[in-house]
């Protein structure tokens, strides 16, 4: 008899991190794995499904123009309820901190279906940063029965919140599994401009910036600092794949659009983005996952947020939290660009987030918990 596992995700970051787990679960003869996508983000989600050759079994297709967090929450809950009632999974797996994750977990709780939380236990300790992700993650942690924590520190966060150690498995992060499966030294970009850049001669900076809490003056300050950094270093080129949100794009054009060594390009699918990360000199980002991916590729990461839910990277020295103050962004950026010993100390620090085996640990643990295997899983150290 097979264990019925339903994976649920709705955004590009979730899809990237769940894809290797879906593929691993589908390989297991003892598991019946089906995929439900909410399409909280439609286009960006579909591109990842194509890369990893995943065909959803259920598609809620909830995305609407101008959708609010409340809209997403209610539509995900109603849609998941119908699928849960008809398919009757024995466990629902969700990922991380999105509204899809929280709403699907609550819907599963209402149907008395155990929830497995992949990438559990991250905390920024500020409920409004990142917003609404920090609270989504905390609430999902209260609803989950199985907690798949990427690191030991994530496990300890959960223990402090009275989650039993026996319900937590330290796995490493599935994003490393995904990343290592798509990076190719000989990769050619569809965007020909990227193929013309000499990544060996130029110090190329990859910028990503889209967080809701950075909209307005913080984002303007980030872009101003980036523009000054590039102007003052002739060997630096900056690439910014712009988020589709017009707030982000308008600000980028206003403060960086007249610099011929800053390339404002359209968003990249996961595979070209991962390969771009592997080629650049350093990364500046307000994203969460890139704080794990960049160090796995030996790239220093400047975090454009005032706090991070990934303190292990700060402690390991693979990332530097610089916040949104333009003077600090410029100062740390200048040091990374001009001080080779400082750069190497960060680039060569050991990534604390995984070894590429997180998905297999999760699959093995499910089989153990459901009594199909009698072998306990060795945790990621």
From TrEMBL:
Highest taxon in the source lineage: Bacteria
Please list the GO terms describing molecular function.
UDP-N-acetylglucosamine 2-epimerase activity
* Keyword Isomerase in record: yes
* EC number(s) reported in the record: 5.1.3.14
Q: Which InterPro entries match?
A: UDP_GlcNAc_Epimerase_2_dom, WecB-like
Where in the numbering of this chain does the UDP-N-acetylglucosamine 2-epimerase domain appear?
A: 23-366
UniProt keyword Isomerase, yes or no: yes
CDD domains with a match to the protein in the record: GTB_UDP-GlcNAc_2-Epimerase (cd03786)
- The residues forming the signal peptide are none
Q: Which UniProt keywords apply?
A: Isomerase
Could you say which protein family the record assigns here? Belongs to the UDP-N-acetylglucosamine 2-epimerase family.
UniProt protein name: UDP-N-acetylglucosamine 2-epimerase (non-hydrolyzing)
Q: Look up and give the organism this protein is from.
A: Acetoanaerobium sticklandii (strain ATCC 12662 / DSM 519 / JCM 1433 / CCUG 9281 / NCIMB 10654 / HF)
The coding gene here is: rffE
């Amino acid at each position: 008899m097979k264990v019925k596992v339903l994976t649920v995700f709705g955004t590009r970051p979730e899809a990237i991190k769940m894809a290797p787990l879906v593929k691993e679960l589908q390989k297991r003869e003892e598991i019946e794995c089906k995929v439900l996508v909410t399409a909280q983000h439609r286009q960006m989600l579909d591109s990842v499904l194509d890369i990893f050759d995943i065909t959803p079994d259920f598609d809620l297709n909830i995305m609407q123009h101008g959708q609010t967090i409340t809209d997403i929450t209610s539509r995900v809950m109603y849609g998941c309820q119908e699928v849960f009632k008809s398919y009757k999974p024995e466990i629902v797996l969700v990922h991380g901190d999105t509204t899809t994750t929280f709403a699907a977990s609550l819907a599963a709780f209402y149907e008395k279906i155990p929830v497995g939380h992949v990438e559990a236990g991250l905390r920024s300790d500020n409920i409004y940063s990142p917003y609404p992700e920090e609270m989504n993650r905390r609430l999902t942690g209260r609803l989950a029965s199985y907690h798949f924590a990427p690191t030991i520190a994530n496990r300890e966060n959960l223990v402090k919140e009275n989650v039993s150690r026996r319900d937590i498995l330290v796995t490493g992060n599935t994003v490393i599994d995904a990343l290592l499966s798509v990076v190719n030294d000989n990769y050619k970009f569809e965007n020909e401009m990227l193929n013309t850049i000499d990544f060996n001669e130029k110090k190329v900076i990859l910028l990503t910036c889209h967080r809701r809490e950075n909209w307005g003056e913080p984002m303007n300050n980030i872009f101003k600092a980036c523009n000054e950094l590039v102007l003052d270093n002739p060997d630096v080129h900056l690439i910014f794949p712009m988020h589709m949100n017009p707030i982000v794009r308008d600000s980028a054009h206003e403060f960086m659009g007249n610099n011929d060594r800053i390339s404002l390009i359209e968003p990249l699918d996961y595979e070209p983005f991962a390969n771009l990360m592997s080629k650049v000199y350093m990364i500046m980002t307000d994203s969460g996952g890139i704080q794990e991916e960049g160090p796995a590729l030996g790239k220093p990461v400047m975090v454009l947020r005032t706090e991070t839910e990934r303190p292990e990277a700060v402690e390991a020295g693979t990332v530097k939290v610089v916040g949104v103050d333009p003077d600090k962004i410029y100062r740390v950026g200048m040091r990374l660009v001009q001080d080779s010993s400082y750069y190497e100390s960060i680039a060569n620090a050991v990534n604390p987030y995984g070894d590429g085996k997180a998905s297999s640990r999760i699959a093995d643990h499910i089989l153990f918990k459901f009594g199909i295997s009698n072998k306990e899983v060795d945790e990621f150290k």
